[in-house]
Amino acid sequence: MLKRGEPFSGSISEDGIEPSAAIEHGRYGRFTGPLSLLGLPIYVWQGVGMRRRSLRLSPPPGPIEGRIDGAAQEIRLLVIGDSSVQAVGVNRQEEGLANCIARSLSAMSGRAIRWRAAGFNSATVPQLTSHVLPHLEPRDFTHIVVSAGINDAKNWHSARRFNRDFGHLIYGLRARFPGAILFWNPIFNLRLVPGLPRQLATVLDMRAELLSRRARQLCRERGMIALPEMTAAEAKGFARDGFHAGSMGYAALGAHLADHMLGNSGDE
Description:
Elements: E1 2-3, H1 20-25, H2 32-38, H3 40-53, E2 65-68, E3 71-81, H4 97-109, E4 111-119, H5 125-132, E5 143-147, H6 150-154, H7 159-176, E6 181-184, H8 198-222, E7 225-226, E8 232-233, H9 247-265
Parallel strand pairs: 3-4, 3-5, 5-6, 6-7
Antiparallel strand pairs: 1-8, 2-4
């Protein structure tokens, strides 16, 4: 699905997070909100059609946690989020995002990796906070990746609401797992998703951009690392529904995230 590309804004600050100018303007400039509202009729019309015609994929079978042998100083990885974390789009859980990140971390660092996936199809950020986080078993995770936000954009959550919801999730993760390094996997450029009509993809990407600005700012303020997004895609990397990643897409995204996780956490 994905090729390694330049970071979201083309530049990264010394702390590994997007500079403030990138957070402020993004892909569509300062008028992203009003422009996206003009596209509301497209969202309603084409969105209803997509829901009727789209192929519904179920989460695959397989373990949602595992361990990869390696050197000492084991990385204990939690990946929490939406359908990507539940491996929707592939045939086995082991092909999903969590295990792909774990395999890449192991290959790049040589360290042992213990991984755990906690995701649900169509999950929004407040659902992760209220229904997933409280039910996670207490563990001493060292690295936590949050892969969420796209469903909040699809559901037309406002930037103000998302700011509150994402902030609550960060606080919840920090309180429950105080020793872990937190990472956010940003929302992918929806204009590159082959299963979305071009006009609908643009409108949804504008909504996603509004939420991404808030998420990046909250990451700065609350000690979470916003990883650079991937900026290129190939159709063969997507699942047969044209929306979720396939095995190649998850593998590429896992490698991309692992690379930047190691570079931003001093684990290289």
